[in-house]
Design brief:
Blueprint lengths: L9 H14 L10 E4 L2 E4 L4 E4 L2 E2 L4 H12 L4 E3 H9 L6 H18 L9 E4 L3 E4 L3
Amino acid sequence: MVIEFPEERLPEICSFKRKLQTLEGVKIYMEPQQIRYPGFFLDMLQRKVMVEEKEVPLTAREFDILAVMARHPGRVYTYAQICHLIYGETDVGEEMYSSAYCLISSLRKKLEKEPRHPRYLDTVYGVGYRFEIA
């Protein structure tokens, strides 16, 4: 199939083509800079988390994991995926699973009023965790 354009539009088309070529290889990042849910606020630029109007200090890893999970509420992240997010490793063992468990446990203690009955970080038994908004 051949598409023909009027010759007078050729400079405009060439200009558009050059603009597209300059964007080639440039990643356009469209993630939200702030995430708001009832009682929960996360600011990516300031790396700040607020729960019930109070700022919650987090480590860099805790913030990074929470930010990924909060962008996709309801999505289940397996232990292996969380380990990959923490360490960048694809080959994860039992020791790394334990590290993921400890990180989520630490996040719960900081975010939740009742860590044993989490409002935000829900366990999917035998699989991993998900960020939920109750």
